[in-house]
C-alpha cells in the first residue's frame, strides 16, 4: 500500500467518523449535567450498605466484582502472553547478563535509590486503603511494582532479580489471581452467591471495614505487582544475549 | 464551554490515529495507540462529571454530598488496565519484529507487505 493511498483511506475514515461522532455527541448529556441512575444510587447507598467510603472501589470490588475478575485475568493472561511471545531461545547456559548498568547516570541512580523505599511503602498503603481513600489494588500494585523496577533503573538489574526472582513474581501473580476467585468461592461457602460480601463489614472508615473488599484489594495488589514485574522481567531477559544471537 | 471535554477527546483520538498511520517506528506507533486510547478516558470521565460535585469518596465529607458518577470512573480503571496489557503485548511483538527483521520501521516489515 502506498503512502498516498494510506492517507486517502485515513482521510475518508476519519471524516466519516467525525460525522458519526458529531451525531453521537448530540445525544450525550451536556457536560456537567449527567444523571446516571446507577452511579447516583451507589453514591447514596454505598456507604450505608457496605461501610466503605470509596465508591469507585465499592463498584469495582463489590457491586461489579464479577467484572473485575475478568479485568484481573486480562492482566494475568497478558503476563502469560508476554512470557510466551518472548520465551527464551537458545541454550540457557550460554546466556550472559547484560554487561554494565543499563545506561544509568548518576542522576537517575540517585533519584531511583531515594524513591525506592518511600514508593514501596506508598504502594502498600494505597493497596491497603483502597476501600477508604483513592486507590486500590490496581493502582497500588503498579506503584509497588515501580518501586522494584527502580532498583533496575538504578543500574542494579541483577539485584532486582534477587529481590523479586521470576518465580516469586510468578507466585504473586498466581496467588493474587487465585485469591480473588477464592474470595468469590467464599461467598458460596457462606451460603450466598459467588462473590457475595459475606465477611463482617466493620466500622466505616476503619482499615478492616468493607468485608471482602479489603481482601479483594489485597489480592489484586499482589496480582498486579506480580504480573507487572513478570512483564518487566520478560523484557529484561531480552537483553541477555546468546553467542548465536551475537553472531 | 459545555462541549470542550468532548472536543479534547475527539482531538486526542484523531491525533492518535493519524500518528498511528504515519508512524515510521513501531514503538511510536504503539505510543500513538496509547494516545488514541486515552481519548476514551477523557470521554468517560467527562460524561460522568457533575458540575460542582465532589469526588465519589466520602472519607472526609458526609455521604450526602453530591458526587460525580463512580461507575464511569470504575470503567475508566478497566480501560487503563486493558490499555496497559495491550501495550505490553504489542511491545513484545515489536521486540520480536526487531529480532526477526532487524528494523522497527513498519514499512520495512517484509511479511506484512503485499
Give an overview in words:
The complex is a heterodimer of chains A (247) and B (114). Chain A starts with a helix and ends with a helix. Chain A is globular. Chain A has one domain (52-242). In chain A, helix 3 packs across helix 4, helix 3 (55-63) crosses helix 9 (212-237) and helix 6 packs parallel to helix 9. Chain A has helices spanning 3-25, 37-50, 55-63, 65-85, 106-128, 137-153, 157-163, 166-189, 212-237, 243-246. In chain A, 68% of the residues lie in helices and 0% in strands. With 247 residues, chain A is mainly alpha-helical. Chain A is built from 10 helices and no strands. Chain B has 114 residues and is an all-alpha fold. Chain B has a single domain, classed as Orthogonal Bundle (Helix Hairpins), CATH 1.10.287.3510. Helices cover 65% and strands 0% of the residues of chain B. Chain B has 3 helices and no strands. Chain B has helices at residues 4-22, 26-48, 70-101. In chain B, helix 1 packs antiparallel against helix 2 (26-48) and helix 2 (26-48) packs antiparallel against helix 3 (70-101). The chains are: A mainly alpha (247), B mainly alpha (114).
What labels would you give this structure?
heterodimer, A: mainly alpha, 10 helices, 0% strand, globular, B: 114 residues, mainly alpha, Helix Hairpins, 3 helices, elongated
Q: Give the radius of gyration of chain B.
A: 19 Å
CATH class of chain B: Mainly Alpha
Largest interface: A-B, 56 and 49 residues
- Any idea what the shape of chain B is? elongated
- Extract low-pLDDT stretches of chain A: none
Write the element-wise H/E pattern of chain A from the N-terminal end onward: HHHHHHHHHH
Amino acid at each position: 500500500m502506498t503512502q498516498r493511498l494510506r492517507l486517502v483511506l485515513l482521510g475518508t475514515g476519519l471524516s466519516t467518523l467525525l460525522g458519526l461522532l458529531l451525531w453521537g455527541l448530540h445525544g450525550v448529556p451536556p457536560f456537567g449535567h449527567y444523571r446516571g441512575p446507577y452511579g447516583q444510587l451507589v453514591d447514596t447507598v454505598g456507604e450505608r450498605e457496605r461501610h466503605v467510603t470509596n465508591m469507585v472501589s465499592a463498584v469495582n470490588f463489590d457491586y461489579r466484582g464479577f467484572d473485575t475478575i475478568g479485568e484481573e485475568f486480562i492482566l494475568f493472561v497478558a503476563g502469560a502472553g508476554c512470557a510466551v511471545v518472548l520465551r527464551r531461545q537458545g541454550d540457557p547456559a550460554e546466556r550472559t547478563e547484560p554487561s554494565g548498568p543499563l545506561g544509568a547516570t548518576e542522576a537517575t541512580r540517585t533519584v531511583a535509590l531515594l524513591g525506592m523505599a518511600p514508593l514501596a511503602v506508598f504502594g502498600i498503603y494505597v493497596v491497603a486503603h483502597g476501600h477508604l481513600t483513592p486507590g486500590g489494588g490496581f493502582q497500588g500494585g503498579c506503584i509497588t511494582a515501580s518501586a522494584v523496577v527502580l532498583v533496575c533503573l538504578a543500574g542494579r538489574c541483577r539485584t532486582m532479580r534477587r529481590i523479586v526472582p521470576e518465580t516469586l513474581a510468578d507466585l504473586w501473580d498466581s496467588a493474587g489471581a487465585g485469591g480473588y476467585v477464592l474470595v468469590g468461592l467464599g461467598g458460596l461457602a457462606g451460603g450466598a452467591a459467588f462473590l457475595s460480601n459475606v465477611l463482617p463489614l466493620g466500622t466505616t472508615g476503619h482499615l478492616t471495614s468493607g468485608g471482602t473488599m479489603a481482601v479483594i484489594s489485597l489480592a489484586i495488589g499482589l496480582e498486579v505487582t506480580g504480573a507487572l514485574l513478570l512483564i518487566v522481567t520478560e523484557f529484561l531477559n531480552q537483553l541477555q544475549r546468546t553467542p548465536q544471537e551475537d553472531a | 464551554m459545555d462541549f470542550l471535554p468532548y472536543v479534547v477527546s475527539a482531538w486526542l483520538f484523531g491525533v492518535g490515529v493519524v500518528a498511528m498511520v504515519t508512524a515510521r517506528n513501531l514503538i511510536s506507533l504503539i505510543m500513538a495507540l496509547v494516545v488514541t486510547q486515552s481519548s476514551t478516558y477523557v470521554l468517560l470521565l467527562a460524561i460522568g462529571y457533575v458540575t460542582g460535585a465532589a469526588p465519589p469518596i466520602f472519607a472526609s465529607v458526609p455521604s450526602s454530598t453530591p458526587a460525580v458518577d463512580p461507575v464511569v470512573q470504575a470503567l475508566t480503571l478497566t480501560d487503563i488496565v486493558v490499555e496497559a496489557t495491550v501495550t505490553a503485548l504489542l511491545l513484545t511483538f515489536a521486540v520480536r519484529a526487531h529480532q526477526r527483521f532487524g528494523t522497527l520501521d513498519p514499512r520495512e516489515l517484509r511479511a506484512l507487505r503485499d
